[in-house]
């Protein structure tokens, strides 16, 4: 992918990924989906789905599937028996669940926060896909695993290894209650074996949680009393409990911060795209909205006057609480430049702040400000 001499990303592409995806990093591989490719599709095609590796797994830099046979997942920690090996191929014959769900990097929208280093995500670190796999409790039952009542977290590791010595291996912890409630070992994405670059042959999926918690190339689950103290879990992918002024210094501890677990309520205007040539008159706006699936969305509101007044968009509720809602709204636009905002509200009253920077945090996670776009009408 990269020309070693010039260090330029070459147009030679991973076969099966749309060449219009934008390279945010070549190694580790980070690809962002242009807005136009997200618009209009309820299920995001695998060829359009963003890619976010914190570390690459060399043999997984392909859209081909990797073989299930021979792949093992180790379970250990405070369980009885103390160590269990799950063979991925045994999952094939077990009952499966299929969940339509948003996959969103917690760094999506980061470039809307001021002055934050890290991958400069626009809004293309999100998609809506179907994962299919075997619920973790069924796997535990099959192997007669008993979990010690002291266990609070399950920490997931993947086969990928850090590239340099300066960073530890990627892993994440999830609350054991959520894991037992809805985590599954996924074997399929959009009805086909998971493409290697998206974490195949097996990936731990917990709907409603941010992308980083969906550990790819799953090789180990540790059942423990404490959250992992690993860099990616204890420092990266964390947000402070307290509000900070933009630019403030902050030292992360387990007590003063929390992981980027549950997806925040969010909406996007996907069409018309910024820069589209529009004529005055009736214009149809459309986009998507979602939350962490723990409540329904109540409304998607659209404003043409910077929040003075709001109109309710139309939407149909998806069957899966974790999927995104597609919304649309018709409005009459006069010639001129218009600022258009969208804002989702759920039945728990959770919504998007008018100014997303009130949630400024040092690593720029969980941006969920009111979505703002500008359109010129002739
Ligand atoms: N093993 C492993 N799992 C991982 C990562 C990784 O680098 N290694 N990246 C995480 C992050 S930060 C995100 S946002 C999602 C991205 O999933 P995708 O590449 O299938 O879009 O995978 C997560 N799971
Ligand atoms: Mo991410």
Summary?
The chain has 378 residues and is mostly beta strands. It has helices spanning 35-38, 88-91, 136-142, 176-182, 231-234; strands spanning 22-25, 30-32, 51-52, 72-77, 79-80, 83-87, 97-104, 126-135, 146-147, 153-158, 171-175, 184-189, 192-193, 203-205, 218-224, 238-240, 257-259, 266-271, 281-290, 297-303, 311-312, 314-315, 325-333, 336-346, 371-377. The protein has two domains: 2-259, Oxidoreductase, molybdopterin-binding domain (Sulfite Oxidase, Chain A, domain 2, Alpha-Beta Complex), CATH 3.90.420; 266-377, Immunoglobulin-like (Sandwich), CATH 2.60.40.650.
Folded structure, characterized:
Helices cover 7% and strands 35% of the residues. The protein is mainly beta and 378 residues long. It has two domains: 2-259, Alpha-Beta Complex (Sulfite Oxidase, Chain A, domain 2), CATH 3.90.420; 266-377, Immunoglobulin-like, CATH 2.60.40. The longest helix is centred in the middle third of the chain and has 7 residues, at 136-142. The radius of gyration is 21 Å and the shape is globular. The protein starts with 21 loop residues before the first strand and ends with a strand. Ligand MTE binds at residues 49-55, 103, 105, 158, 160, 170, 198-199, 211-212, 214-217.
């Amino acid at each position: 992918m990269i020309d070693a001499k010039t260090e330029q990303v070459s147009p030679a592409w991973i076969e099966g990924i749309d060449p219009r995806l934008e390279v945010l990093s070549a190694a580790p591989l980070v690809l962002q989906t242009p807005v136009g490719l997200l618009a209009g599709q309820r299920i995001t095609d695998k060829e359009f789905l963003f890619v976010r590796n914190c570390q690459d797994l060399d043999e997984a830099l392909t859209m081909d599937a990797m073989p299930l046979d021979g792949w093992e997942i180790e379970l250990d920690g405070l369980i009885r028996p103390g160590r269990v090996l799950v063979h991925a191929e045994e999952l094939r014959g077990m009952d499966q669940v299929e969940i339509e769900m948003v996959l969103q990097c917690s760094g999506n929208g980061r470039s809307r926060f001021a002055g934050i280093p890290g991958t400069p995500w626009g809004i293309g670190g999100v998609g809506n896909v179907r994962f299919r796999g075997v619920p973790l409790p069924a796997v535990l039952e099959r192997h007669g695993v008993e979990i010690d009542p002291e266990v609070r977290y399950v920490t997931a590791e993947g086969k990928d290894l850090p590239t340099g010595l300066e960073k530890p291996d990627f892993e994440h912890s999830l609350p054991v209650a959520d894991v037992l409630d809805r985590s599954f070992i996924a074997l399929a994405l959009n009805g086909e074996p998971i493409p290697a670059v998206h974490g195949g042959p097996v990936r731990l999926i917990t709907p409603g949680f941010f992308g980083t918690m969906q550990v790819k190339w799953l090789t180990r689950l540790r059942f423990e009393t404490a959250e992992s103290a690993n860099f990616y879990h204890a420092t990266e992918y964390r947000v402070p409990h307290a509000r900070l002024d933009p630019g403030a210094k902050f030292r992360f501890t387990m007590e003063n911060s929390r992981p980027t677990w549950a997806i925040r309520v969010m909406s996007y205007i996907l069409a018309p795209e910024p820069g589209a040539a529009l004529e005055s008159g009736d214009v149809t706006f459309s986009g998507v909205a979602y939350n962490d699936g723990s409540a329904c969305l109540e409304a998607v509101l659209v404003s043409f006057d910077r929040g003075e007044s709001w109109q309710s968009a139309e939407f149909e509720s998806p069957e899966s609480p974790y999927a995104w809602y597609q919304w649309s709204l018709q409005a009459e636009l006069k010639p001129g430049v218009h600022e258009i905002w969208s804002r989702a509200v759920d039945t728990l009253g959770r919504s998007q702040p008018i100014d997303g920077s009130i949630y400024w945090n040092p690593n720029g996670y969980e941006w969920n400000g009111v979505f703002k776009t500008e359109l010129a009408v002739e």
